[in-house]
Specification:
- This protein is mainly α.
- The longest helix has about 40 residues, at about 45-85.
- About 75% of the residues lie in helices and about 0% in strands.
- Helix 1 (about 5-35) packs antiparallel against helix 2 (about 45-85).
- The chain has helices at about 5-35, 45-85.
């Protein structure tokens, strides 16, 4: 059963790591723009970079959680299926 969803389990871990990296790059990019040597209009761009980085973080993290939820649902349904016994009486 471990090999059944191996790619999906890998993609959950990969998406979580990627979401944190993109979120961190968004914060870092916003700080670089905010404290860098730029004119006053470029300071507003730091809010845009921060917002987009946070949005990408949220989308990727939620996607990884949804995939993990589907894997958990499938595993629990398989456990229920194996634990339910079939009736032994014949229906005529």
């Amino acid at each position: 059963m471990d090999h059944q969803h191996s790619f999906l389990r890998f993609s959950v871990i990969f998406l979580k790591i990627l979401s944190y990296v993109i979120g961190g790059l968004g914060v870092l990019g916003a700080l670089l723009i905010l404290f860098g040597k730029s004119s006053g209009t470029d300071k507003l761009a730091s809010l845009g970079v921060l917002f987009i980085g946070g949005l990408y973080f949220l989308i990727l993290f939620l996607l990884s959680q949804i995939i993990g939820l589907f894997i958990t649902i499938d595993t629990r349904l398989q456990n229920i299926e194996t634990s339910v016994q079939t009736p032994k009486r014949e229906i005529r």
